[in-house]
Design a protein that fits this description.
Strand order of the largest sheet: 4-1-8-7-11-10-9-13
Number of domains: 1
Shape: globular
Largest sheet: 8 strands, mixed
Strand content: 25-35%
Number of helices: 6
Radius of gyration: 17 Å
Structural class: alpha+beta
Length: 215
Amino acid sequence: MMNLHSVQVGRAAPLGPENVPSGFVKRAVSGRIPVAALGLTGDEQADLTVHGGPEKAVYGYAARHYASWQAEFPEHAARLTPGGFGENLTIEGLDEDAICVGDIHRIGSAVLQVCQPRQPCFKLALRFEDNRLPKAMVRTGRAGWYYRVLEEGELGAGDAVTLVERPQPAFRFSRLVTIVNHGAATPAEMAALAEMPELASSLRRRAQGRWKMIA
């Protein structure tokens, strides 16, 4: 069973001892919430040069990962709970190994498409005041995934997450996370990513540049 464990949104606010503007810290919302092309109603990003936009509209994260995080970082266990990584959607029954690039999910009346992984930045370290967290996210591949919004609608905690279409069944999302984090793509993989319309345009352009260098 795949279902929406919780929904979180947040406003931009100072983060960490240096008061860096960020929308990282989010609160759980109850009831139904609208999903528009650029994300959930009430959700904000502070730095729109690297966050937000149609290909980072909604951030999903695997609920099952939190047990692993708590075991590895028990000192942060109280904050390593659903919503702790700033995700909008905490999802039961899915993780990076269970999805493929381009998967289309219906959640409530909204239709969303998996298009890229999260690449952790310094704000993750600020959130927990621990520089080990971003490194651990890269090492473990527990990155989560960004959705683009194909059809606007509404969703809420408890909704089923239904796979509508899988256009790239041969390209597991966990493999994409490894490639993005470690640059370990084969020539065949790089060629495939360079021509993959479901992939976020920034990653597709990066793949196209690398493919030109090796082709």
